[in-house]
Input
Amino acid sequence: ELTTVRVQDPRVQNEGSWNSYVDYKIFLHTNSKAFTAKTSCVRRRYREFVWLRRQLQKNAGLVPVPELPGKSTFFVGSTDEFVEKRRQGLQQFLEKVVQNVVLLSDSRLHLFLQSQLSVPEIEACVQGQGSQTVTEAILHYAMSNCGWVQEEESRP
Output
């Protein structure tokens, strides 16, 4: 089984405002039975990764969860350099997570990677309080074509 996960195409949202942030495209391609959709593409920001790691840690018991790149407020160097270092760190984090069978069994991870649901919507879905099951939410996103974006589009 092969799972490729790429974190790419960082974009600044709300640029120039006090609430600007960077989000990243997460492209997933797999033939693993663990995943509902074989290809997906979503955008996530750093604080959603922080939430995901916290949830995985809570549910993984004694299984160590990979570290995220630091949240440096005092970064020395260019913003571009910082964003690129963070992108690489987020990619390494996800690569390690999807290789771990215990972490792979967490529904939150699948919704994070294969739907564009917000963090509260993911929580509701996992707790059975959403309008869809986890599988339905992923399939709905995959069928909407939002989840299918050719990886080649964003190759430098």
In short: The helical segments are 46-59, 79-98, 101-104, 107-114, 119-126, 134-143. The two ends are 27 Å apart (CA to CA).
